[in-house]
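re: ur question from earlier - yeah i can do the single chain one, its not a big deal. heres the input i used so u can compare w yours
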Amino acid sequence: MNEIKDPELQEMADKVRTAMASQRRRGRSGLVGWAAAGLVIVVLLIWWLWPSAEGIEWETHAIDRGDMVLVVTASGNLEPRSEVTVGAEVSGLISEVLVTENDRVSYGDVLARFDTEELEVNLAQAEARLELARASVAEAEATLEESTIEQRRTVSMHERNMASQAEVDTARAAVMRARARVMSANASVSEAEAALSASRTRLEKAIITSPVNGVVLKRDIEPGSTVAASFQAPELFILAEDLREMELHISLDEADVSQVKSGQPATFTVDAWPGREFEAVVQRVFLYPDTESNVVTYTTVLDVDNPDEELLPGMTATATITTGTHENILRVPSMAFRFQPPGDEPAGGGGRGMFMMGPMRSRSSARDDNAVWVLRDDAGEEKPEPVQVHVRTGRTDGRFTEITSDELKEGDKVVVGFSGGKG
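and the output i got, formated as tokens:
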């Protein structure tokens, strides 16, 4: 650096350098101060948010004895007890439809009619062919009678040596041919009668009538539509025989199917009537399974009385079936099996001791579904801590679970939750 010869300028340069050095020192000390303050804040937050065993209040429930009503829950849909599909067995043009959805019908009521002009012509032709066949029978019978008389005359002449044997044989053959023609004519009459009956049946089937007393659920035909019944009968109407008696078809899980039997009572709810429960009775459990996405279910049918017709076909229902009652059992709230304390392991790696407090573990972490946490004051501690107890369980009704082992006794307090702690 070149030295400044002017004393005043040199003094001024020294002051500037001194000021710059002081500013750099203040900048470094400021950064250190801010870093220290941030670290203190982080430590305070960790201390405040970290759970503390001293601040936790355990929520418990005393184990007791009582009755447990066992139930099975499944969902399904309501269906008419008897549903009839009405189709068409003839082809042709629909000229008239007399009912629509929700109409009530009785047995024999006309639902729709085909255009019958062509069918009527076919019927008239069949009647004419029958008359012709009958006339052919009369003609064949007359020929037979004539041949029979001629045969008798020839035989008589042969006996008087007035006709040869050949003439007798010819007369006999003529009689046999006449009889065959009579048989053929009679067969033609039977064929014509069958054709006439078929024509009449087709004409009768051109009028679609109701086979039951019920209500029209669905109509799939309109006047002017053409129906082709070549391979199978087209479905024109769906009728429910009686909506006052319905069925609830539910899909029962394979884990529950062994508990459900015919005659068991049930209740169910539907979204259309919130807050209401309807009664039902198990009718039967189908043995054939339904498998979808590796989930096996069994269709179960429940009988439902619907006197006011408030329930409609297709409604989704959730059914609860009462499968039995267990009396005077040792029971624990089911939520106790889902509880996890806010720590990883008890101090000492197992058994009793203060919990090493840490973040709450999620329900996806490894745990024993047959274990509960119990508050026991065996050592006379001022504030007992939960101890994990493994148990054997029996049936459950959703709220309570039966305890079948001896690790717990009536009055023991199981932990179902906690409150308190810093943070």
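Residues 7-49 form the longest helix (43 residues). not sure if urs matches, ping me
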